[in-house]
Structure prediction request, 645 residues.
Amino acid sequence: MINITFPDGGVKQFEAGITPLQIAESISPRLAQEVLAATVNDAEWDISRPINEDASIKLFKWDDAEGKHAFWHTSAHLLAEALQELYPGVKFGIGPAIENGFYYDIDPGEHTITSADFPKIEAKMLELVAKKEAVVRADIAKADALKMFGDRNETYKCELISELEDGHITTYTQGSFTDLCRGPHLPSTSPIKAVKILSLAGAYWRGDETRNQLVRVYGISFPKKKMLDEYLVMLEEAKKRDHRKLGKEMELFMFSDSVGKGLPLWLPKGTDLRLRLQDFLRKIQRRYDYKEVITPPIGNKILYVTSGHYAKYGKDSFQPIHTPEEGEEYFLKPMNCPHHCEIYKNSPHSYKELPLRLAEFGTVCRYEQSGELHGLTRVRSFTQDDAHIYCRPDQVKEEFLRVMDIISIVFRSMKFDNFEAQISLRDKVNREKYIGSEENWDKAEQAIIEACQEKGLPARIEYGEAAFYGPKLDFMVKDAIGRRWQLGTIQVDYNLPERFGLEYTGADNQKHRPVMIHRAPFGSMERFVAVLLEHTAGKLPVWLTPEQAVVLPISEKFNDYAEKVVKELDKYDIRAIIDDRNEKIGKKIRDNELKRIPYLLIVGEKEVQNEEISVRKQGEGDKGSQKITTFAENFAREIEEMTKQ
Prediction:
C-alpha cells in the first residue's frame, strides 16, 4: 500500500500502481470524467500512469491551465498523426501546447501546405478521434530511440535524441504515430470533440536562422463544439482589436524596414499618449518618494559580466560594439539594473537613508528573432518604466507591499479590473541556472509569499519561472475579451547587490548589504500601450487620448465658429481639433469615429445662433446640444472620476 496526500492535506491509502484516473474514480464518477492531467510530487503526470510510492497529488480539469496543457499537447500529436497520413514522408520537429492551443513544426519535403488544406486536416483529425485511439507512454533506450526514428528518416528527432541522457527518454504512441515526448498526455484522443487549424508560419529549426526553415502549423481544440464556436467569435473580435490595426488607424506608431525590424517609431499622437502615461506614473512615484535618473543607452561589457547578465544572455543580445581602443567592448543596454547599481555605489549610504528608490523610463535593446516579433508586444527596442529600490532586509516586505499598491493604482485607473498574480520561484530540482545563496533565495521567496498573503491577493505559484537572480511576482491581466497578458512585475534580488559590492552603514556602524527590488508597473511602454489598445478596442480613457474632441462644422461657413469653440475648450484644458474638410457631415462623423476620438462636437446654423455645440460621444451616440461651459464642466467631472487614485 502507498499513501497519497491530497492538496487539502488529507491522506488516503491505495495499492501501489494506482493511477491518478483511478484515484479520481474513487472520489466521484464525475471527477473521473472531467480530470485531464495530474501532478505527482509536483511533477507532471499522465492520469493513466501508475504511482508506485508515497506521493502528493493534484488533479486538473479543463478549467485548470494544467488540464488545458495536457489536452492541447495530445491535440498536437493528433495533428501530427493527421499530417503523417495526409502527407507521407513529412518530417517532424517539435509540437508543444501553448497558451492558446498548440502547434507542430514540420518539414513538408516535396509537399506544399496552404490554408486551403485546413478543412482537410481538420477532417482527418476528427476521423482519427472517432477511432478513440489510446495514447501509450513507453520508456525507451537511447540506442533504440535513435534506431526507431533513424529508420523513419526523422533527422530532427534524432538530433534531439542525441542530446538526451540514456534512461530518461520516453515516447508516446497513438495509432500509427509515435513521437519523442516527455508528456503528459490524455489517456486517449476521445475527449477531443472540436478542432480548428488556425494559421501557418515559418519557423527556423531550433530557432537558428542558419538552419532549415520549417512550417509551423497552429491549431486549437476543445472538449465541446460550443467552446470552439465561442473561441472563433472571440478571435474575430480580437482581429478588430488588433493593436497594429488600431495603431495605424489612430496614427499612433509605425514600423519601417529602413529603420529595422522590431524598432517602433512613435508618431506625434502616439508620443503624446506615451508621455501622458509617463506623467501619470511620475505623479504616483513622487508620492512614494522615488527619485528619477537617466542612464546611457550602452554599457561596457564589464558591467554585464559583473551583473551576470552576459553569462546568461550574452549570446542572445545584439553583437558587441567594438571601439578603437584595444579590447574595449560595449553592448546596447539590455537592462537598466546594472546602471542603477553603479549610481547607488556613487556615494556612501547610511541605514537612515534607506530605502533609496531610483526610477527611470529607460530604453533597452534585446535581440529577438524576426519570426518572434509582433507589433508592440514583441520588439527589439522598448522602454521600461523601471525602478530599483535599495533597502534594508527588514524593509523588504513593506517596500514590496508599497509597490503592489502602485500597481493596483495603475490597474484601477486603466480599468484593468480582472487580473491575477503569479509567484515565480526557483525550480525545485535544477538550481544550476540561478545565482546566489540558498539562504538569500529562501528569504526572498518568503517575503513575496507573505506580501501576497497580507494583501489578500490570490497568487498562483509557478516553480522554475523565477529570474536567474531572484523570485518575482508577475501580474496577469485579463482583457475585455478574456485574453491573459503579463504586465506589471516585482522582483526581489539579494544577488546583484552582492555582485556589485553594494553597502550601507548600519546602526551598529558596520557595513551591510542592501536588498534590491526591481519593479515595473507597466512592464514596458510598448507592451502596455498594445494591451491597453486591445482591451479598450482603441477607445482609450478620455484623459489619455491625444485628441479628446473634434469639432465638425457642417459647412465651410461655420469654420470660424468652430475655431472659437476650440479656443474656448482650450481654456478648460480640453484637447480639441477641427475637421474642416469639405466633406459631408456623415463622412466626417464616420472618419473621426474610426480614429476613436471620444467626443464629436457638431456645429451648424442652430449651434451658432444659440452659442452651443451638438455633442456625440464615441460608442454612445447623440447627447444633444449643450453650452460650451456646460460641456466643459461635465467633461471635467468625467476626468476627475476616471483619474481618482
